[in-house]
Amino acid sequence: xxxxxxxxxxxxxxxxxxxxxxxxxxxxxxxxxxxxxxxxxxxxxxxxxxxxxxxxxxxxxxxxxxxxxxxxxxxxxxxxxxxxxxxxxxxxxxxxxxxxxxxxxxxxxxxxxxxxxxxxxxxxxxxxxxxxxxxxxxxxxxxxxxxxxxxxxxxxxxxxxxxxxxxxxxxxxxxxxxxxxxxxxxxxxxxxxxxxxxxxxxxxxxxxxxxxxxxxxxxxxxxxxxxxxxxxxxxxxxxxxxxxxxxxxxxxxxxxxxxxxxxxxxxxxxxxxxxxxxxxxxxxxxxxxxxxxxxxxxxxxxxxxxxxxxxxxxxxxxxxxxxxxxxxxxxxxxxxxxxxxxxxxxxxxxxxxxxxxxxxxxxxxxxxxxxxxxxxxx
Length: 378
Hints:
Elements: H1 7-22, E1 26-28, E2 36-40, E3 48-52, E4 56-58, H2 59-80, E5 87-91, E6 94-97, E7 107-110, H3 121-126, H4 130-133, H5 140-166, H6 172-190, H7 194-201, H8 205-208, H9 215-218, H10 226-247, H11 249-270, H12 279-295, H13 297-321, H14 327-344, H15 352-375
Parallel strand pairs: 3-5, 4-6, 5-7
Antiparallel strand pairs: 1-2, 2-3
């Protein structure tokens, strides 16, 4: 074992140990790629790190490697909704006729062992602990076992976290809301108070401004007809059951009602008509899914691109083309859902800094909309 661990094997193993266990990078599986290891961490400065073990003979081969890498990175950018993606390539076997300073499309370094890091000061700025973390007291077989066990343990931990987040859970809050919508609609019709309930509880700016603030939420539980009810209940079942499972019941409930509130505030600020329906809150769940999906885009990137974003765009366009649709409530709910998700955070992904900024923006926007919608003199 000690003989098989030459300098190139050792530096590759140590690099993998550092980037996976210390910097939370994850391996990317790419078909048709040989003698390369690709790692991704969308929250680090270098979102992609390549460790290339194959021999690069000269500048021509180096330029082809750069070109090939650029094409793969473009595909990853589309999948992960990234506008810019810093790439670091670490070569471990470089010929004398291959010059890294000729490469312009990505940052490159050549490491035969960890001592070569002294030639690249920019690496220590991005990864200040890398030199110390590449030092081990173990040697040979013991080093191989330690690195392998540490990497396997880290990968197992990350897999367990993802399994916990994506494990299907019962959408109790979603079903409760659907049942409430149905009971309110059919109950008010059976008791012949449906029209009165619209007058008493709809979202209507002039009455909210004189103190009937409860309308900001009660109006979101009312629906215009059976088709309006059925569409919103179906939409809530599809989107709500997923987001309640991903976020948990408490966060889901907070996001739902805040989206409904902000949707109503947008409606009364820019709309002079009465409004009813849960669509603003449902759009808030779509906004929440956008932010959640961005953090888990490795798993949901294709779903966001092919389903969620087109669904949002189509529904907003439909709202603009139809005068009977309160699109302002949709826009307000969409923004509210996204912002509240930033403030509450995505499990295992959001940082404290992101959540604090989310709360600051959410409070400022909410206060501004309350002033514009309720207290601004008209």
